[in-house]
Specification:
By secondary structure, the protein is mainly α. It folds into 3 domains: 56 residues, no CATH class; 80 residues, Orthogonal Bundle (DNA polymerase, domain 1); 163 residues, hpI Integrase, Chain A (Orthogonal Bundle). The protein contains 15 helices and 8 strands. The strands form 3 sheets. A 3-stranded antiparallel sheet has the order 1-2-3. Strands 4-5-8 form a 3-stranded antiparallel sheet. The radius of gyration is 27 Å and the shape is globular.
Amino acid sequence: MQTTLGNFKHAKIRGKYIQVHACINNVRYRFSTKLRVTARNLLYVENNYMQLIEKHKQEVEQNNNIGLDIATYGREILEAHCEQRKENTYIRYLNVFKKYIVSRIGYLEVAEIKPKNAREIFANFNDITATNKSIVLNLLKLIFTHAVIDGLVSANPFLHLKCSTQRVIKEDRNKPFSMQEMKQILSKCDNALLQLYLFIAFFTGMRPNEILALNVKDIDLSLGNIYVNKSVSHNKLCTTKTNAARYVEITATLKQYLTSVLKDKSGYIFLDSKKGFMNEKRIAYNFKKLLKKLDIQNNTLYSTRHTFASLMLQNGEDMHWVSKQLGHKDLSTTLQYYVKYIKQDKERGQEFNRAFEDLEKQEVA
């Protein structure tokens, strides 16, 4: 029998596996069958979802009896829910789950967590960064939302918790370089591949993982643009951060440099000795060595992006053009981070004032 994927009421595709989705007697069921996605398995789940629900209820009851812990249950939920996300996002969530949740509260039984002690449990993560703490809370909310569906708990104990907006002030490691520092970095870099990376970074504002994914054919020197449609994550090609492609204009200085450097190159530009994609950490390591040698402030690779935006705006470039180069979805994102760098014209508004004063003089006359 032939069938198409995804046209069933109770058998739903989630990542690599099939889930049962059903509502019986006002009770909602949503769980992974651990069956791989094939037409035959989808048909089997659709025709036998009631039996699968009964089996699932028995397994939940058994798990309740033996005391299902957060580490075991959470990993199952995370794998089922996050597989359809971008690979780098999934890996980030999995790393936070293992490093913080499993190591600190993974031994706690799911059924024992109640709203009254959720705040005390979440206090175990007060010492980590605001970003990781936010991910921890989102993961706990996700895990216990499924725990409610599976009948392990009656309510999500973390549902109404929020991360504090107060952040610890720390050294800005993405501070933009000055024009003089940028010129010194580019002129004193004796690592050819790093110099190529830095020229592209400083003169386009591209994200580090977008630069590492560049192929020579993405760079059109005759039209004066770079086609940005992919990035590198964990040594594999993936989509850009915004899942959108864009064209980045090549400025005159960069065009002159690339014309000379890329003359005899083909294929992917930033490859290691084994012909795999270059590791961002390796580029960052060499970059830090260069900064130390030049006695320039310690910074991350991302600071090159901020340098591009800040210097362009300080020198009067159009905000919309800068935003387009950076690949921001809308202008508000650019304004949020870079409005302080916009060149201030002291004569701004003077023409309006003069026109108003001239009108007053005419009326008096």
